[in-house]
Each structure stands twice: as structure tokens, then as C-alpha cells.
Amino acid sequence: MSILLRVVVYLFMFVVLWFGSGLIISAVEKASKILKISTFALSFFVLGLLTSIPELAVGVTSVVENNPQIFVGNLLGGVVVIFLLIIPVLAIFGNGINLSHHMDNKGLLAAMIVCVAPSLLVADKRVGVFEAVLMILLYISTLYIVQRKQNLIERIETIQNSLKVDRKTHVLNGLKILVGLILVFFSSEYIVRETIAFSVIVKVSPFLLGIVVLSLGTNLPEFFLALRGIKQNKKDVAFGDYIGSASANTLVFGGLVFLNGGTVTLENNFLQSLIFILIALVCFYFFARSKNTISRKEGIVLVMIYVCFITLEFLAASKG
Question: What is the pTM of this model?
Fold first, then answer.
């Protein structure tokens, strides 16, 4: 394939990604109204897990190729991307995000803990079975805490009745979500693969490749959901997906440790990355707690922190 054709296909995949994310948002919005549950809840519990499939795919590949540092860097970098870039973009161009009707303080704190857990557990450069089990249990605990705010367990009977009454509509919505996810998955997978090829050419280290390049690429579905959410004024879908996806990354991390034989040993000194991850989550938590919102100004501050993170990572790589 010629370079020009590769570039054209590469750009076309962004169009496919945009179209697929639009299908997902419209279907989730319609399904939440029929089921009488919030779009945030449906996005958190369903989209959050499904849009973590690219991270899982990259993780499985890195394990098979005996290079676990790639999936570790990708998942840790994903936390930074979601909380310092994607959510801030939603706040900046969507005129802020109101959190009061999405999550209470317990739910928000639980989500922050489950998101930061992998970073803290790999601080000694080794992750074993105990840490993997702990990450999985933290994710399950977060699901329980968040569902209490949404009263999902108490409303299971109502949801089941709704599914029985209007099966055709639910099937069509399910198909739209499935088609959207397939388009999003394959287009983002192609974009990530081409981005990796470019990174290999410029000789980027595996850990830097994961924490900067792949973390951006595998979070393209979330980023395009943000753009679609802003355009259609349906930010709840996007925000629920982000918190759910960031939390699901911890579940993926724990699963990949088991897939890697029950242990992962790292060579890179990523203290700098760990500091930024902590800064990202602490700033996000306190901004969210201040007035139960992430304002446009706070979004700009978070993006500036992300720019500093990227700059320092590349400077550290160039010195290494």
C-alpha cells in the first residue's frame, strides 16, 4: 500500500470512528429513556466496559509478545488521558460538567481509588497475584457503590418488565450499539496500529509508547464520544463512559496480570508518571467536590497539566 493511500485510509478511519460513536450515543440515549434509568448509569456499566476493549486487545498482544511493559504503560497512561484530557475537553467545549445528579461523594471517591490503584500497586515495579485480585475486587466494589446511587438493583423488576413490553425497540437499539461498537473498535484498532508503526520508525521506547502514544490511541472511542456528546448536547453518555472506562481499566489490568502468568515485572522508573497520575486524580476529585461541577476554567487547568505530563515524558525519554 502506497504512503498516500495509507494516509487516506488513516484519515477515513477517523470518519468511521465519528459515525460509530454517533450510533452509540443515540442508541444509549433512547435505551435509557425506555428503561427509565439515567444515561450516565447505562454508559458507566455498559459502555465503560465495552470501550475498554481496545486496551484489552493491546494488553493481550503485549502479553503474547512477552512485552508487558506496553500494556502497563497503556493502562496507566489511559488514566491520565481520561482525567487530564478527555473529561476536560468535555468540560471546556461543553460549558462544564454537572456531577450532582451522577455520583455522590462516596461513588466519586470509590471511582478515584479504583483508578489510582494500579499506579500505586506497581510502584515497586512488580505486580503479583495478590495485587491482581485486589484490583478486580476494587472494581467490583466500585460497581456496587455507584449502582446504589442509581438504585439499579431495586429497579431490576421495572427494567425487566420494560424489556418484555418493547422487545423490538430494545433489539434495534442493541443492534445500533453493536454496529457502533464494531465500527469504533475496528477503526480505532487500525488507527492504533498505524500510530504504532510510526512510533517504531522514530524508535520510541515500549513504556513511552504505551503511556503516551497507545494511551491516546486506545482512548479514541472515549474522545469521539466526547465530541459527539458536545455536538448533540448529551454529555451524560460520554461522562458515564469515561468514569466507567477508567474504572474498567483496573479490571483489565488485573486480568492481564493473570494472563501474564500471575506476575509482571517492570524495568522502567516511572516515578514521574506516577506523580502525574496522582496529580490528575487529586485535582479532578477536588475540582469535582468544590461545586459538584468541572467548570470550563478547571478543564483548562487539567489540560495544561496534561501538556506538562507529555512534555516531561518526552524529555525524560530523550535523555534516556
Answer: 0.73
